[in-house]
Design goal:
It comes from Kineosporia babensis. The chain is mostly beta strands and 326 residues long. The protein has one domain: 2,3-Dihydroxybiphenyl 1,2-Dioxygenase, domain 1, CATH 3.10.180.10. 12% of the residues lie in helices and 40% in strands.
């Protein structure tokens, strides 16, 4: 099979964009219950986002990373200030779209204790396959698959995957493999519905899942999944139409030459987005997968600055979290 030209352009899966209704509330939630910590703030002024279908818009929020080492995965918590967020996050884990994210954790029992201590109840009353699932303040489904059931003295966690739930797994695999050029790392295809605690809506589930990584590797995967049980219904078949809908909105990929990527894709408009103080202009190309799930490429030539409690700013950071100064 011929190698996709984008395979040599996409460096890594870099971040998830999560639209929230209250950036401060969401920041506190994720820092309290996940390994994510704020890297810097985002304060995008009024500007045009043609590729998102927003003629004039602005947003604020935070870029967080999971502190997983040389290739930290980021989550961008985005609160649209104009236009304001709309809709709701997907209520069930098999909804077509970016249905949920997952953090691998050390111990299921220890995680349960932490969640209950924070007043957060799991979305499933019983825990199967070591999965504990909850919802964030806006309803986004978050799962914590555990390495063990027994209690652990320490909890170590990493952002491990997001789930693009799709209608036709063969069509989607062709796109993610042969158009994006991602690497198929593993598969999970149970022959019948099994008990699982993947999130609200059902205890039983059956999936056809294929996990992809970028050429840089790293612990984070795109868990491309078609759910056969529960059976899809008309109200679960369409991803978010509006870019400011609450929930996981986009997956971001770091590339080294966005002009070359646009030429390969043969579509899309390269835009320069202003994320506010501390950010260089972000050259971005947005497009959709076969199900209409939003994806974006960004060119890696930008820097951000960490905030410190003493108010001082250390040297700028590149997207990998390394000092950008000699």
């Amino acid at each position: 099979m011929q190698r996709s030209p984008l395979a040599d352009r996409i460096n890594r899966i870099a971040y998830l964009v999560v639209n929230v209704s209250d950036a401060e509330r969401s920041r506190a939630f994720y820092e309290n219950l996940t390994p994510l910590r704020v890297l810097t703030s985002i304060d995008a002024p009024e500007q045009t986002f043609h590729s998102l279908g927003i003629a004039e818009g602005s947003f604020r929020g935070y870029a967080l990373d999971d502190r997983s080492g040389a290739l930290p995965m980021q989550v961008h918590l985005i609160e649209w200030t104009s236009p304001r967020p709309v809709g709701q996050a997907y209520p069930v884990f098999w909804h077509v779209g970016l249905a949920k994210m997952a953090f691998i954790t050390t111990s299921a029992r220890s995680k349960l204790q932490q969640l209950k201590g924070a007043g957060v109840e799991p979305s499933n009353h019983l825990i199967y396959r070591g999965y504990t699932s909850i919802q964030d303040p806006d309803g986004v489904i978050i799962s914590f698959p555990a390495q063990q059931i027994e209690e652990a003295t320490e909890i170590h966690e990493t952002l491990i995957h997001t789930n693009p739930s799709v209608r036709d797994i063969e069509r989607s695999m062709d796109f993610y493999s042969n158009v994006l050029g991602l690497h198929l790392a593993s598969e999970s295809v149970p022959p019948q519905p099994v008990e699982s605690s993947q999130g609200p809506g059902s205890v039983l589930s059956q999936w056809d899942s294929h996990l992809y990584t970028g050429r840089a590797g790293g612990p984070f995967h795109i868990d491309l999944s078609q759910f056969h049980h529960p059976a899809p219904t008309p109200d679960t078949l369409t991803p978010y139409e509006q870019a400011n809908n609450l929930g996981i909105a986009r997956i971001g990929f770091e590339v080294d030459d966005i002009e070359a990527c646009r030429a390969i894709l043969g579509a899309g408009e390269i835009e320069e987005w202003d994320y506010g103080p501390g950010w260089k202009p972000r050259r971005t190309l947005c497009f959709r997968d076969p199900d209409g799930i939003r994806l974006e490429l960004f060119e890696k030539d930008f820097t951000v600055q960490r905030h410190r409690s003493d108010g001082a700013n250390p040297p700028p950071l590149d997207p990998q979290g390394q000092s950008a100064t000699p």
